[in-house]
Design a protein that fits this description.
heterodimer, A: 116 residues, 7-stranded mixed beta sheet, 11 strands, globular, B: 109 residues, mainly beta, 5-stranded antiparallel beta sheet, 0% helix
Chain lengths: 116, 109
Amino acid sequence: DAMVIQNPRYQVTQFGKPVTLSCSQTLNHNVMYWYQQKSSQAPKLLFHYYDKDFNNEADTPDNFQSRRPNTSFCFLDIRSPGLGDAAMYLCATSRELGRASYNEQFFGPGTRLTVL
Amino acid sequence: QKEVEQNSGPLSVPEGAIASLNCTYSDRGSQSFFWYRQYSGKSPELIMFIYSNGDKEDGRFTAQLNKASQYVSLLIRDSQPSDSATYLCAVNAGYKLSFGAGTTVTVRA
């Protein structure tokens, strides 16, 4: 089955210790997104890639970086995690972008990050 | 004004009843609208999408869209305990989806 996979499902790190979360997709979608979701809040878009073009949200802290080495994989790097970065990190994909396109986004299972 | 607003919850309905969820959006140019279901501790799961004014039915779920009123709703008929979850309304805002804060539904057995 075509799907979005995230690893690890649970990640524990120490304050200030860099961490990398990974996402892969077999949907062959052009767009990959990273969201941060805290308890009882809507998912917050951090950035997205359209193919190799990277697009950062204006309010995404510099502490968050991303890499997309190929169509299938995308990584989220948190350079110096703080206690406030503890959250669920969601990867999503969609076929295309644009207001007029049918932009269903499909989410992976998420990675729950704990910062000690 | 928030881009996407949902009726405040939580919403508690008895098993077998209809759960009605509402969502309004501010961007009049939006053309596609989505409902995601999110169980506690899990990721959002797409359950319905609608692009045209009117109703769209899929099993026990009906999405309703009124672009003139900038309003989209989700009806869950014959509610089951397994429908207990948070429902997120999302609106295509161009390069991204704008999400509402979600409405938590509890179905009482």
